[in-house]
Write the C-alpha cells for this entry.
Amino acid sequence: MENLVELHKAEYGVEPDSVATAPGRVHLIGEHTWFFKDKTLSMAVNLPVYVAVSKRSDSNLHFNFVQLKEKKRSSLTTLKMKKEDKWANALKAVVYGFVSNGYKCPGMDFTVFSEVLPSAGFGITTAIKIAGTWAVKDANKFRISEDNMIRILERANRQFLGLENYRADIFTGVYSKENTLVLTDHARGTYDLLPFKFKDKTLVLTDARVPRITTWNEESLQQPENVLLLGELKERKSTAYGGWVYEDSGSERNEVLSVVSEDVRRHLICIMNEHRYVLDAQIALEKQDFAGFARSVNKSHEGMRTLYDISCPEIDWILKRVQTLASPAGDPRNPVNCGRITGKGFGRCTYSVLRNEDVEKYQGVLADYERIFGFQAEYRIVKTSRGVRIL
C-alpha cells in the first residue's frame, strides 16, 4: 500500500484520492457453459491487483502499469477502445461505465500494481476493472449501491469492450470471502457462496509455459440453434441447485443431437456434463466431502481433454501425476488430490488441490516435466481470498 502511494505520487505529483484492491480468480468448473445459461464454480485467490486513482482538474485520463512499465493516455472526450492500449482498455471501460450511466467524472490518473500480469490468465484484467470501479467511486464520492456497481461493470464489458462472458468473473471478484467458492447461476443471474474448508489441502496454480494456441473457434458453438437443442434436454428437478438438470440418457442425448456434426455433438455433451459436475461439486462441498468434489474436478478435466478438445499432452501429463501423487496409490473413486486445466482462452495453466504432504512431491513432478518437455513451469501456492475492498 505504501509503495503504491509513493509510486503514484512519483508519477503524478499527488497522492491518490483512493486505492482499491481486487483478487485474482480461477474458474474451477463450468466456465465454458455461460452461453447456455448453465452454472460456473469459481474461486477468488490471493493474487491481488491494486488500483490507485487521483482526480485531475482537466478531462485527461492517464494510466500507468508499474510492473509492465507501460503508460497510456486518453481523455473523457475521446474515450474509445484501442487495440494497442491492451490493459488500459479495462480502465477506460470503467470510466465509460460511469459516464454512460450519467455520473460526472473529472479527468483522472490511474496507477495499476500487480505482481501477476494479465497474460497469466488468472482473472487479472477483471481484477483491474473491479478495483478500478471501486476506486473511481470512492475517489469521486459517488453514492452508488453495490447492485448498481455490478451494472456499471457489466455495461463496461458489453458496451465498451464487447464482452458478454463476465458475470461469474464479476461475482467472484466482488462477493468472495475467505474459505469459500462462488457458484454463479447464469440463468437466474445470481450467485451463492459455498464452503471450502479443507485444512489438509494446498491450492497450487501452475503456468505450464506451453505456447497458447486456439484449437477450434469456441464462438462457433455459441449459436442459438445449439441453445435450443440443449433446451430440449433440460428437465426440471426441484432438488437440484437451480431447479433443473440435463437429460442423462445417452440415447436421448444422441437422438436430439443427431442433427449436428460429430465435433459439435461432443462439445455439447461436454457442456451438459460440466453442468452435472458443477452440481455434484456443490453437493460435495456442502457436505465437506473432498473426494466427491475432487471426482467432479478430475472428470471435468477429462471432458476438457476428450470432448471439448482444449487440453494438450503437457497439461495432461502434469494432471495425470497430480492424481497419482498419493503413496500408496489410493482408490481413484475417492481421490485425495485433484486438478484441471484453466486459464485465459483455451488455457495453458492448471489448478491443483493437493494434500499438504504432496506439495514437495509436486515440485519434483514439475522438475521432471521440464526435463521431459523442455518447458520451465512456474507454480504459485495460493489461498482463497475475499473480494474487492477499499484500502
Summary: The longest helix spans residues 262-286.
